Fold:
Amino acid sequence: MQVSSDENDIPTHWYNILGDLPFDLPPDLPPESSAASDEQLKLQLPLALVRQSTSRERNIPIPPEVRDRYRAWRSTPLIRAERLERSLGTQAQIWFKYEGGNASGSHKLSTAIAQAYYYAAAGAKRLVTGTGAGQWGTALAIGCQAFGLECKVYMVGTSFRQKPYRKTIMQVYGADVVPSPSPDTASGARLLNEGRMDAGNIAFAVTEALEDALANDGSQLSVGSGESYSILHSTVIGLEARTQSERLGIRPDVVIASLGAGSNFGGIAFPFLQDRLRGTSEVRCISVEPSACPKLTRGVYRYDYTDGSGITPLQKMYTLGHRFRTAGMHAGGLRYHACSKLVSALRHHGLIEAVAYPQTDVFASAVLFSRLEGILPAPESAHAVHAAIQEAARARDAGTAPVILFCLSGHGMFDLSAYAQYLDGQMEDVEVTDEDIRASLEALPTVLEPTA
Amino acid sequence: MQVSSDENDIPTHWYNILGDLPFDLPPDLPPESSAASDEQLKLQLPLALVRQSTSRERNIPIPPEVRDRYRAWRSTPLIRAERLERSLGTQAQIWFKYEGGNASGSHKLSTAIAQAYYYAAAGAKRLVTGTGAGQWGTALAIGCQAFGLECKVYMVGTSFRQKPYRKTIMQVYGADVVPSPSPDTASGARLLNEGRMDAGNIAFAVTEALEDALANDGSQLSVGSGESYSILHSTVIGLEARTQSERLGIRPDVVIASLGAGSNFGGIAFPFLQDRLRGTSEVRCISVEPSACPKLTRGVYRYDYTDGSGITPLQKMYTLGHRFRTAGMHAGGLRYHACSKLVSALRHHGLIEAVAYPQTDVFASAVLFSRLEGILPAPESAHAVHAAIQEAARARDAGTAPVILFCLSGHGMFDLSAYAQYLDGQMEDVEVTDEDIRASLEALPTVLEPTA
Structure:
């Protein structure tokens, strides 16, 4: 196996693509109504993270304390999938950056460590967050552990009960985990009193987390991993991959990553996209989404809420509508109804590509990959595996030999029930009709778009 | 984090400690009765593995095909647990060799790959094995995948039902997995007809596997990971660690590993013990067992069956009696009633040390370790973590600064229910009384010991 990894590959700065964009992002708009005041929401975020979201500085220094923590698992290996190449009979090279080898099991730890650092530096004693399947909660628990913060996680109740392993690993890492709705908040208690213990979802978990943070001194809300600063922190992935590629003498022609909100995709793609923005490369960056949640491939570029609750500021982005619901899909991390404004703008300006695949095809590729390469991909990451295989097969048929790079963003050790369903022939694809999307888009807020 | 790993560290030869021992091992004796004839059992094992079990050759070449496969995850990292050192306030250095980062999640893959290679080279088309919690079955499934063999796993029925993830991961890697007792064999069908679907155990699973292998052309039984050749293959771990230590300029004073049958312990310890046998080192090698299954610390050095069924040859080893049963203990891989004859003889001759710890102390150390070092140890491996912490604390109290090396033999991602039990305060220690051991030892076969 060809692997490249060296501690010295960890960059000293994150890459801020805003510094290279030839256009401005449409401004955020205040929400129509809000459970919390705009002021309250702002106070939740350390100034350093606010600045990172709007800065035009190309290279933002990684604090030494964060870089030191990165050294616990970074640089991550850049691995050549030689057996996969051979089995496909392709001349393409397939490389992947493996982000699943850390304590949290996914790429999210790179921003969780940074966020915990900035909150601690700003005086927080305790972080509160909401989590769905638990990946973000796990990463944040580890981040808090690293910087001496307490961590409280409101985990969507159905996941709490169906995924006890995810709950336990957060507890191992010292987090206080409760199912949402929970009796710890007034809004949670209200639902429980009505007997609606299964009424929770990620938006409600975040609402409870916010209520908790506002009610407790020294506590602050951590929103999650879809913000601009999360993408910024995640560029450590692509920066490492670029350094490793240079050392190996390869130059990716195609960079592929799955798309939840954007931190995974932007994390690996932006440092390569920089070369394209500067005209020194024609690299293709391809985002991969489930056909059950096709925001970039079938959504609209409009103003929408970033969560399902309607309390957050409005952002212009590709969206299926904040009321869009995806059922029966295993890649929980790709279930988000929209795509971060940054990645959306790149798509709008034709700088990136987007594809969507049904989950049974994705799992077929994941099983093939794990048998050949010995790493079990998370369902989210499996989308990138599948897209890379499609590209390599196309190259074989066209007689070309591109260098393909994809991000294997997390391991699938906690997703074996999905694999079991696939292997037992019980997995179904979720069909999304145009009518579904049209109906969901009707709930989009009507706003007067500012002229850019 | 200080980490050392380099593909060139993979050795070209395994280390055979028989070549350096100043004494002979007591010979095996035929079983008193046998379900399968001695001849049948012998036919199951490729000649290469038979030879490896008795050879006095110090260095046994690793076939290029095996070494090539090792490159998929080896060399494994040698990591310094600096945060753990600091939190203990010790001057001791604590290093660990991490064997959990591969597709199987444990050290067992190093021998599974080698075994699959030798069986395939000897003409087998299909391997059949028995597995308890599933670690061995997972490793063998991957080994079979690597060399184009079919793989059939008889998994102890209670584990099959309680640990569906373990079952699924074997299926992902292409194995055909059935619960034992199973309708696929006459002996399994008999139990099922009697309504005894929960009567299975690892010995019965191996019995079914043997019956299956004998009944199907091209099929052979793979016994598992406790044989002398398994220890031999596992020395790749210690050999790498020795090379890595030399490059880092350190020299372990203490080498620690948990003890199931012996492949994990022997795998890391023997290459270091070689220096001691040659008089060039005074390294201490410490095996760690659960106090609920204290074969080396409280067992007797006698002839016994290597499994619970009484069909295998008798070997002289430290044993608690082949009828010894351990209940309520989470480290399934350390549940074996005895210790391989090779490790036993070393203990008998005073060349290694043995300690035993209760599981609640072991889990406390495992939680501490994962919070500080970001790797969740399997319960088996957690025994070594705990022993290393004890040694480091002793060094602190004594004002010494030894270099401690332990093997972190596998990850605990599939053992989170045990962690949950510990965190919920529901875990209990299993007390083994002298009377328990005395009663179990009464079942030992009476044999006329050959004079050595």
Observations:
- Chain B has a mean pLDDT of 92.
- Chain B has two domains: 29-63+108-228, 66-104+229-441.
